[in-house]
Amino acid sequence: MKNEMNKLAGLRHAGLTMKGKTFLVFAGAITLSFGLAHGITPEPSSSSRSGAAAQEEIKKIELERNQALLKHDTATLDRMTSDDYTFINQRGELRTKSEILAGFKSGTFNYDAREISDLQVRVYGDAAVVTGRALQKGVENSKDYSGENRFTRVYMKQNGHWVSVALQVTLVAK
Questions:
Q1: With helix as H, strand as E and coil as C, how does the chain read?
Q2: Contacts of 72 (CB under 8 A, 6+ apart)
Q3: Looking at residue 88, which CATH number applies to its domain?
Q4: Could you tell me which residues are beta bridge partners of residue 156?
Q5: Residue 156 belongs to a domain
Q6: What region, left, alpha or beta, does residue 162 occupy, with left being phi > 0 and alpha being psi -120 to 50 degrees?
Q7: Which pLDDT tens digit goes with each residue over 56-103?
Q8: In this structure, is residue 34 part of a structural domain?
Q9: Which of 129, 140, 75 minimizes the C-alpha distance to 101?
Q10: CB contact at 8 A, 113 and 136
Q11: How many domains does the chain have?
């Protein structure tokens, strides 16, 4: 399983289009989910202690990211996000890192409140998948983005630091 994730990470520099990268990241996440659902165990981290430490580190990063969103802290968001980051929001719109940073800098993205919970982190060597819930009140480009969401975020360890490479959000029906 680790080999497949490393192959996906290597494709980042293979000249793929943004849509191609997005497809590969989510295809990888789906493959991991399918494998876990059918009892296929991915290669564990080097030790259970380091895996648990990575899980806690990523949970802290998620909380820090949430605070950065609320405070329009684009320097923190920039540091925690890969340059080839892709985000599919609750309306199915694809956004890049530069679009997100520009939205928070200009104020067209604004969250009055946002709480995250139910964080589950699975670490696969230098890759990790986080699932969770977000309850938020906010606006992006004059559109209401308030409500309850479930999300899946993918992290990769780059230069010794965890960075988010992809996020997909689904609105929970009322």
A1: CHHHHHHHHHHHHCCCCHHHHHHHHHHHHHHHHHHHHCCCCCCCCCCHHHHHHHHHHHHHHHHHHHHHHHHCCHHHHHHHEEEEEEEECCCCCEEEHHHHHHHHHHCCEEEEEEEEEEEEEEEECCEEEEEEEEEEEEEECCEECCEEEEEEEEEEEECCEEEEEEEEEEECCC
A2: 104, 105, 107, 110
A3: 3.10.450.50
A4: 127, 163
A5: yes
A6: beta
A7: 999 999 999 999 999 999 999 999 999 999 999 998 999 999 999 999
A8: no
A9: 75
A10: yes
A11: 1
- The domain of 144 spans 45-171
Give the tokens for residue 141.
Answer: 């480009």
Spatial distance between the Cα atoms of 164 and 6, rounded to a whole number of angstroms = 15
User: Does residue 73 belong to any structural domain of this protein?
Assistant: yes
What's the pTM value of the predicted model, to 2 decimals? Answer: 0.72
pLDDT in tens, 12-46: 444 545 555 544 455 455 545 545 444 544 544 44
Q: Which residues of 120-132 are buried (b: 16+ CB within 10 A; e: fewer)?
A: ebbbbbbbbbbeb
Q: Which residues contact 89 (CB under 8 A, 6 or more apart)?
A: 95, 140, 145, 169
d(CA 31, CA 1): 9
Residue 152 in domain: yes
